[in-house]
Specification:
By secondary structure, the protein is α+β, with helices and mostly antiparallel strands. The chain folds into 2 domains: 5-97, Nucleic acid-binding proteins (OB fold (Dihydrolipoamide Acetyltransferase, E2P), Beta Barrel); 122-442, Bira Bifunctional Protein, Domain 2 (BirA Bifunctional Protein, domain 2). 31% of the residues lie in helices and 25% in strands. The protein has an 8-stranded mixed beta sheet, sandwiched between helices. A 5-stranded mixed barrel has the order 1-2-3-5-4. Helix 4 (126-148) packs across helix 7 and helix 6 (248-269) crosses helix 8. The protein is elongated and about 85 Å long. The protein binds one RNA strand through strand 1, strand 2, helix 3, strand 11 and strand 15.
Length: 455
Amino acid sequence: MRTLIHQVLQREEPLDEVQVAGWVRTRRDSKTFSFLELNDGSCMQNIQIIADSDLDSYGDVEKLSTGASAEITGKLVPSQGKNQKWELLATEVRLLGACPDDYPLQKKGHSREFLRSIAHLRPRTNLFSAVFRVRSRLAYAVHQFFQERGFIYVHTPIITGSDCEGAGEMFRVTTLDPHAMKPQKDENDFFGTPTYLTVSGQLEGETFACALSNIYTFGPTFRAENSNTSRHASEFWMIEPEMAFCDLQADMQLAEDMVQYLIKDTLTHCEADLKFFNQFVDKGLLERLQHVIDNEFKRLPYTEAVEALINSKQKFEYPVEYGLNLQSEHERYLTEVHFKTPVTVCDYPKEIKPFYMRRNDDDKTVAAMDLLVPGIGELVGGSQREERIDVLEGNMAQHDLSMEDYGWYHDLRKYGSVPHAGFGLGFERLIMFVTGVSNIRDVIAFPRTPGSAGF
RNA sequence: UCCUGCAUAGCUCAGCGGUAGAGCGGGUGGCUGUUAACCACUAGGUCGUAGGUUCGAAUCCUACUGCAGGAGCCA
């Protein structure tokens, strides 16, 4: 019976017999024995194995090159060496899969670009195994956060007929012949109507919030935008809570609580991995994360954000002026330089926000909010939704949205309308923030970006 | 989509008009309770592709392709 290396290395007492299995990181031969470093991905550390040349199975040891897989049984004893507490004195070594010398992963560092080209092997590196352990823990913590607060997990559709206006270009889902010379009618398509991969589950999520009160979605979303940046991917995961009987203040509070909760959870449960990131990826990471959980987030209206930017006398490439969207450089200045802490900006001019956001009493702004964090920029975008049927109808007319397409959304206001609010949080951006990894392609197992969908 | 930069050995890079280099990795041998082990030897390249300038191009010019960083869009 095999034991995970993670569990073996946590032992307080020696063991007469234990079996581990994994992939060889390196082998160092001595005259009468070999040192093996074995890793099984259960934790950052390798287990050091001493394989004596007297072993019946020493023939297998000599075939254990970097990358080979093996199953090793032995005695766990305190190590004579300096760099590890325990080592395994092998009694039996069994080669499972040999690894030819064209194995692309070396003991030395590789560039991220090269590792992306071997995305099927990169989880075997320290960096990527750590990223994906943290990703797994964060996903678990997301569910824990919402479940502890009585939120219901709703699975909104991946294939959708609605286009969640304003959220970006969509991928068409169709069974029509792409090589057909003649135009084909949508009625002949699989669903009898044009369908797409979802860009957001928000509108569907609202229908469930207006029945189950507090809900959240957590799943893949798709954008066909031709975005070529380190923060955008064509397929990414999004967390979208939606709360009935809720205003923007409570919405912002939930977003801020959630970010702090998730960071605390990761600091507690992924300590070794975060230390690794702090040492090799981003030297200021632990300090920054600690700062985020120890301090309240700065909260201010868009109008004050614009004033702060103008008063800063900072030179920006793009102009700062009431009524214009905040650019990346503005957002990053606010969170990285001006306040040096996560910042939630709210109450944006209605002209620059989508139709479903709730009009404020000033008739100029809407109850929208963006949560900005250092190094990433926008992590969360959310709003209180327009629950007044007449105002929503006006907005729909202004945006040329038909009752045919949005009738069901309009119905939520027609039948027992309630104030409600929610937000979307990009899961990969959260992982980037927590790990310090600066490219979204390195926190997704097999990233999809324009012109690239390998594996 | 725009702007900028890069493309040389399996990997990371140097060379920047005059006979293609290093480190790591691989192979062989040695040494050692080692730990990104160490020492010696060795194999390995149409210098991204296609044109052009030149006596001569990895090196200069043009186009294309790919990649990266930034911008826009957003999460």
